[in-house]
Amino acid sequence: MSSAVDLRRTRASTPNPVASARVSRKNRAGDSYDNIEPLLAELARTSETDPRRIALRAEAIGRCLPLAEHIARRFAGRGEGFDDLLQIARLGLLHAVDRFDPAYGATFLSFAVPTIMGEVRRYFRDCAWAVRVPRRVKEIQQLLGPATEALTQRLGRQPRAREIAAELGIELEEVTQALVARNAYRTTTIDVVTDNENGTVATSLLDLLGAEEPEYSLVEDCIAVQPLIAALSARERHVLILRFFEFQTQVQIAGQFGISQMQVSRILSKTLNTLREQALRD
User: Fold this and answer.
1) Any idea what DSSP says for residue 243?
2) What is the DSSP letter of 213?
3) What is the pTM of this model?
C-alpha cells in the first residue's frame, strides 16, 4: 500500500511533457506585439554601430509578423493575391518598427496598425490598377466603398452618385469618373476559359468573337491609294470617279469628254497601271 502511494506521488511530481508543451505554447502566444514597447525602447537606445541592434530589430519584426498577416487578410478578396498583400503589409511593418518612437508614450499597436494599413492602401492606389488612372480618381475610388456602406445603412437602399458626392463633399463628376474607373482596376483576358451554364464544353470570350472582317484590307488599300489619286491630273481623276464611283460606262464617259470609247479605255488602263505600280512600290 505504501509503495502504491509513493508511486502515485512520484508520478504527480514528475512534469508531464504534453502539458509542459501546452504551457510553453501558451506563453509564447502571450509574448507577442502587445508588450513589445520595452523591446523597441531598448532598440531605440541602441546605437547604429552596436552589434546587438540587428538582433533586437529582427526580434521585434519577428514578434510583429502576425500583426502584418492579420492586416493583409483584412484586405484579401479585393482582386490581389494574398502573398502580395502579405509582402506589402510586412514592408509596412518594417517602416513601423524603424519609425516608432517610444518617447511619445503611445503604444506600438496604435502606431503600427495605421502605418501598415496605409502601406497596403497605397499599394492598391498606385500599383494594383491594370490601366493607368489619374491619382485623384484613385483616391476618390478608395472612398467610395466606405461612403456607399454608410449611406446604404442610413438610407436603406443603394445610394445614388449625387448622394455619394454630397457625402464626400466633392463634385458629382468626380464621383462618376471614380465609378467608371472601377472597370479599369482589373482586366480579364479574352482567352480566359469560362464555364457554361448548360454543361457544354467551356469556351473563352475569344471563341465567341466574330471572324476577322475581310473588308479591313480594302480600307487599308483605300488609305494607301488616296494620296496617289490626289496626285493625278484633273482629267484622269475625273475619269476614275465617273467609272468607279458613279458607275458610268466607257461610252457614257466618252460622250461627256467628246472622245472615243477607245481613248477612255486607254486613259483608264494607263491610270490604273500607274496607281498599281506606285502603290506596290511604296
Assistant:
1) I
2) P
3) 0.45
User: Phi, psi at residue 2, to the nearest 5°?
Assistant: -60, -40
Q: CA-CA distance, 209 to 201, in Å (whole number)?
A: 16
How many whole angstroms separate alpha carbon 121 and alpha carbon 85?
Answer: 10
- Give the number of other Cβ atoms within 10 Å of residue 115's Cβ: 19
* Contact (CB, 8 A) for 40 and 60: yes
R_g over Cα of the chain: 38
- 166 in helix, strand or coil? helix
3-state secondary structure 114-130: HHHHHHHHHHHHHCCCC
d(CA 234, CA 271): 12
Q: Which helix (H) or strand (E) holds 56?
A: helix 52-74
Tell me the three state secondary structure of residue 193: strand
32-74 residue pLDDT tens: 677 888 889 899 898 888 889 999 999 999 999 999 999 999 8
Q: Whose CA is closest to 248, among 233, 231, 261?
A: 261
Please tell me the distance from the alpha carbon of residue 77 to that of residue 127, in angstroms, as a whole number: 16
Q: Are 85 and 76 in contact (CB under 8 A)?
A: yes
Q: Which residues contact 111 (CB under 8 A, 6 or more apart)?
A: 96, 99, 100
Q: Residue 203: beta bridge partners?
A: 194
Residue whose cell numbers read 533586437: 56
For 4-25, the DSSP string reads: HHHHHHHHHHSPPHHHHHHHHH
